[in-house]
Hints:
CATH topology of the largest domain: Thiol Ester Dehydrase, Chain A
Pfam families: MaoC_dehydratas
Distance between the termini: 36 Å
Number of helices: 6
Organism: Luteipulveratus halotolerans
Protein name: MaoC-like domain-containing protein
Largest sheet: 11 strands, mixed
Number of domains: 2
GO molecular function: fatty acid synthase activity
Structural class: alpha+beta
Family: Belongs to the enoyl-CoA hydratase/isomerase family.
Amino acid sequence: MTRTIELTSSPSLAPVMAKAVATAQLRSGKALPQLDVVRRDIRVDAGHLAAYDQLTGFPLRNELPATYLHNLSFPLQVTLFADRSYPYPLMGSVHLSNRITQHRPVSLDEAVTLTVRTANARPHRRGALADVLSEARVGDELVWEGVSTYLYRGQKAEGTAQEQADSGDAVDGPGALWRLPGDLGRRFAAVSGDVNPIHMNPFAAKALGFPQTIAHGAWSMARMLGALENRLPEAFTYDVSFRKPVLIPSTVRFVARQDPTTGGFDIALRNHKKGTEHARGSITPLA
């Protein structure tokens, strides 16, 4: 039977993350729980949306960016991770990829209900993978869906790990240059609630193996979509995978190539000097 955690407001993520870390030793390593985390009738704060848009390149509009709904669902994801029935520890997890499907634009004045659950635990050569499934509804209408895939290093899942196919190189060439300030992690943490210290504190980042602080993957995902906002269809699927962390401060290059037949895009985020691939993605219009 599915258990439900009902949230009446967005939780403060610092204590929820602390709880997830503190209970890491109690994780069972067994099956994923039948657990829904739900927050109903969310009314978006226009000021919060404006701050998000400013950081991610979206214009101020009466419609929510597709990645903003992921932003709203993230506290529900962390609530799921902090529940003792969740088998994998938060520390050491790696956010590998996202798939977002926007079935139609959502207006600022619409009340949205978000539901988050987990599924599809499977083995990986470096540990275990699991998907976190999110959905947004206006009334009974499904308007948005998200799939976030996480790698739990050193953990186990039943089955045989699949060989990874060679995905080739992402799109490259001339593109837009973005100079990322050193305080980007702190600023995005303020609008996302993701206060992981690797994004804000260089000493914490170094302790975990990074030479300096790194940008949030959710920021990269949103900033790439925001760069194409005025060319997006009303309904689309956005796939993005994260390859190498974006160090901050740094300068990155955004590259986009449109398919003239489908109207979709292949996109990539690269280090400006070295050409290192940080993230790649595709945007596919829905019929």
